[in-house]
Each structure stands twice: as C-alpha cells, then as structure tokens.
Amino acid sequence: MALKTARGTRALLDLEDDAPDVLFEKLPGASVPFWTTVRTGFWVAMQDHDFGSEPITTPSQRKGRIAALSTLARAFLPSRRDARRLRSQRDGLYLVSGATTHVAGGKVRNWLVGDFADLFPESSAILQWRSIGHPDPAFSPTTSLDALVTRAAGHARLSRRDVDLRGVRRLVDEIARRLDDRITAEQLDAIASSAAYSALIAPHVESQFSRVLDRVRPRVVLMEDASYGSWAALVALMKSRGILVAEPQHGWIGPTHGAYNFGAAMWEPELRATLPDELLTFGEYWSEGIRHPARVTPVGKPHLEAMRGRAPEWGDRPREVLLVSSTADPEATTKFALSLRDALPADWLVRFRPHPEERLTVASRYPGLISEPRILLDQNSDVYESLARARGVVGVASTVMFEAVAMGCQVFATDSPFADYYVGDLFGSVIKGPQDAGLIAEALREGDVSPSASFGGLWKPGARANFRAWMESRLGDAP
Known about the structure:
There is one protein chain. The chain is α/β, with parallel strands linked by helices. The protein has two domains: 7-62 and 147-300 and 462-477, no CATH class; 306-455, Rossmann fold, CATH 3.40.50.2000. The chain is built from 18 helices and 14 strands. It has helices at residues 7-18, 34-51, 65-75, 114-119, 146-159, 165-179, 185-216, 232-240, 269-272, 284-287, 302-310, 330-343, 362-365, 383-389, 399-406, 419-422, 437-446, 463-477; strands spanning 92-96, 101-104, 107-110, 124-128, 142-144, 220-223, 244-248, 278-281, 295-298, 320-324, 349-353, 375-377, 392-395, 410-413. The strands form three sheets. Strands 5-4-1-6-7-8-9 form a seven-stranded parallel beta sheet. Strand 7 (244-248), helix 9 (269-272) and strand 8 (278-281) form a beta-alpha-beta unit. The protein is globular.
C-alpha cells in the first residue's frame, strides 16, 4: 500500500505548484525569499492539526539578564571549541546540529557523519550548532557554532537595525490565507515572532559564517537539515561560493514530510538556491518516496551497518520487547505497555524507550510505568545498543522501527493517525490497541524474523565504501 500524503503537506505542494508572487518576496535587507524561512513553521502548524499533539513541558532553561550577559561575554572570548579557531583549509565540512550523538569509548561520537568524516580525517572538520561539553568529541577537529550565533545576536542588538514587522506580518497573513484555514491566530503569532527574530540576526549570522568559510574554504559541505529552511540563507551563501551542499538523511522521510516534498515554485532559481544540491539517503526506498529538487543518491548508514554486525542473533538475545514512544498520548502508551507486559510470558520484559524530548519529564508523563514489575526504562544513548538486545520492537511511526528491521528484530506497528502516512502495511497489519497485545506475544513466541520482500531498499549495504566513492567523485567535480 502506497503511503498517503497528509492534508498539510498537500497544501504546501498545492501552494508551491500555484507559485504565487508572495513566495518570492523578500524583506528589506534579506538575502533569500521570506517563504523559505517560514515554510517549515507553517508545515509544523498544519501537522498539529493533521495528527494532533500533546505539548511536552520541560524544565525552563530561560536565563536571567546577568547570565545572558555572561554568555554573551564568553562568546567573544577565545575558546578552543569555537568554530572561528579553524584556520586550515578542509575539503569536506560537516555541518550538524550536535544532537545526533552517542558516547563510545569515553568520547562523544556523531553517528550521522562521524563515519564519513573518519574516511577523510586530514581534510574534514565537523561544525555543530550546539555547544560542546564533556566528554570530548571523538572526531578532531569538531568545533561549535553556538558562540557564533550568540555573537551574531549581540551584534544585531547593538546595531539597532529595524526589522519590518509590518512586512513580516503581512507576508505571514497572506501565506496563511492561501494555505490552510485551520491555522490559528496563536500559531500565526508564533510564526511571525520567530520570523522577525530570524530576520534580525540573519545578516550577522551570514557575516560571521562567511569568515569561517573564508578560512576553511570547503569544497563539499554535508549539512544536516539543509532542506528545512532554518538556515536557507547559509545554504544559498555556500552555493553562491561554488560549494556543493549535500544533506545526509537523519531520520524518516516520505510523502508526508514537508521538508522533503516541494512544489513547482521550489524548482525556480531564487528558491532552489536555498535547498541542498544533493540528498544522501539511507537506501532506494527513501529516495523514491519524496519530491525534492535536489539530486537524490542512496548511500546507506554506516553506524547501523556496524552495529548490526555486532548484534547477537535473535535467539541469543534476552527475552525483551522495546516499546518506542511517539509522544502523542502518554496515557494510551501506558495502558498499552501494561497490556503487552501482561500478555507476554512471565520471563519476558518490556523496555520502554521515551522520545528524546521526554527524557527530562518521563516520570511525570508516564507515572503508571515507573517501578512497574517487568517494565524497564530504556536510557541508552545509542538506540542501536537497545535494538541489539531486543527481540521485538513496537512503535507508531518512528525511524527506529525501520532500523529494527536491519537489526534483526520483529517489528509491530500500532494503529494511530500516523499509520497510513508513515508506515502503511510495511510491517503487516497494524496492532489496533491493548486488546491486540496477545497477537504480539504470539508472534514473538513463534519467533519468525524472516525478512519480508517489502523491506528491500531500506538500507543500502556498503555505506562507507559508497560514501567514499561519492565524496571522491564530488570533489573531482567541485571547483
């Protein structure tokens, strides 16, 4: 069964296929069209209406005035972690969030691009947006852009440059009028506020980032989330310098993902300049389910391959089922976990893996699971280590379910508003609810983990060799 396209994503495509002039407008002083900076905000707002969501409240990280001034002061002081310390030319630059990490060998390793950078250690550098703490990064050099953004914000406030707030609001309202009548006033306020702040600091971020590019002079940049629009101006800046910008796939993509499906307007030069030149996917399956102006090339996922090679065979693993959170309905998830535990034989455990956004609040969101017999909390930083010990994986629409296939697990998709859009019938008939927990228990007792023909193309083998060949080819093409 082909996956469906959600209403919100369909609205994006229809708008861009119509290609109204508003999509090409720029704010005064902006280097890229306004649409590219708010597109994901609109998609997320519509996705809330398509599927519903429950806000995750985390402890406040808001700083007082003195702490904020201290952070700003530190951003102007020398630091070995600061991206501006990079001085030597590097052909390959890996621009990442800093969230795709796990601890290995006492150091923080980036599972998204670390294996790629390791192939070209003398000519690569990793830059991450997050600050760098402890332990140290596994790949050297790895530096942070966090101070760069802080400096840019400081320069923006000192410059007292005005943002055309009326222009921001006019464009947001006009786009919303053409897009989806479900978007609320509160959502529009949030989109406009974020866009105004981005417009304020964007010229300063571009200026600061240009200095990094002047020193490093990369020829190829792998940029996480390059299709999302958050850093559209930086993508356009790099491409204007003749740098090839590629984006490595980091999670689930398909026909409903707004950041990887675009309408005709995004093929026009002004907008296409803000998107990566190439998208590197995990396998052919992912390459075929999207609509993107970039060249799409399957290369695989080296960290997954390495972990699969070290995983025990199914029958040698503990009798455990990994239940992966979707964040959508904690109460329903709790009820399902308890039903699954009760349906399994007494020597089986259910290991519950909260979403990363839930880790700080898991006790308050899932009080009914804490300290329950035969239900354990999975706190492993590397999900592959958890998959390597699981016989079965149960989830809604997580990328982990697809990874579990490669790791030799039995996979069960539970019914939800996401099912027809994210998993379809790839994992067989969906589990309707707690009343079907016995079906999972029965399948696990039978232990049939033979791969389905429908799983072909999920993960391209030979990822490291594939990437080496790709990088060498692109460096040969790059100026």
